[in-house]
Write a structure and sequence with these properties.
Elements: E1 7-11, H1 16-27, E2 31-36, H2 39-51, E3 56-60, H3 66-80, E4 85-88, H4 103-131, E5 134-139, H5 143-146, H6 155-175, E6 180-187, H7 200-207, H8 218-229, E7 240-243
Parallel strand pairs: 1-2, 1-4, 2-3, 4-5, 5-6, 6-7
């Protein structure tokens, strides 16, 4: 129960990774608020959190809408009085080769994967500064540091996630003396249900680019989030940690 009494906010909490992270935080004693567009998925995640005896809060909002995010986060703050852990986990990629890419595709990827992180962090950070403590954990991607070799045509996604890496480092410096840490995970391909649709050829091509020849386990990623949120990580900040089986080496 390393996170007993802590209050966590997770974006993308209805998704395959977000729901696993929410349960891992709840199992360590944290109350968990989920922020996602998928209201039905949020309620499933909330039920899992409550099953661990923790408080759950669900807020459905478009994370690319600054005002909507401010209102949703404001609801959590009004109800709970503060947020101790922020996990920016929402996002998603789109495959489009750069020479064919529309401006709409580009801007959508920047909105979903970078501007959303700004919107939520901007809404949460003032309360963390007031309480002089907090853990911000961003999820980027191996694409941000290895150029998206796992999926060709991921230029816009890689650029947005590289922005998350830059935001993490700069913000970590900005708030380091205020009791707030800011770190970033850069996962490679994860063994979520979406991978079940891979053909044997696609799976082999994927594993061939990963030195360990293993997909990431969502539970392992979730436990890494727990570690970065736990007391023993109080002096770790500005770290970009790949969880990619050596792909980015």
């Amino acid at each position: 129960m390393r996170l007993e009494g802590k209050r966590a906010l997770i974006t993308g909490a209805a998704g395959a990774l977000g729901s696993v992270i929410a349960e891992a935080l709840a199992a360590e004693g944290a109350d968990v608020a989920g922020l996602d567009l998928n209201a039905e998925g949020l309620e499933r995640t909330a039920a899992t959190v409550r099953a661990h005896g923790r408080r759950a809060y669900s807020a459905s909002a478009d994370l690319t809408d600054f005002d909507a995010v401010q209102a949703a986060v404001g609801g959590v703050l009004d109800d709970w009085g503060g947020i101790d852990i922020l996990l920016n986990g929402a996002g998603g990629g789109a495959v489009s080769f750069f020479h064919e890419m529309s401006y709409e595709t580009w801007s959508t990827q920047i909105d979903r994967n970078l501007n959303s992180v700004f919107n939520v962090t901007r809404a949460v950070l003032p309360s963390m500064l007031d309480q002089e403590s907090g853990r911000i954990i961003n999820i980027a991607s191996v694409a941000a540091i290895a150029g998206g070799r796992l999926v060709r045509g991921a230029t816009a996604y890689a650029a947005a996630k590289a922005g998350v890496v830059g935001l993490t480092k700069a913000l970590a410096i900005e708030v380091a003396d205020r009791g707030i840490t800011v770190n970033c995970l850069a996962p490679g391909a994860q063994g979520t249900g979406a991978r079940d649709n891979d053909t044997p050829e696609r799976r082999e091509a994927l594993l061939a680019q990963i030195p360990t020849r293993k997909l990431g386990e969502p539970q392992h990623l979730a436990q890494t989030v727990v570690f970065l949120a736990a007391p023993e990580s109080e002096n770790i900040t500005g770290v970009i940690l790949p969880l990619d089986g050596g792909h980015s080496i």
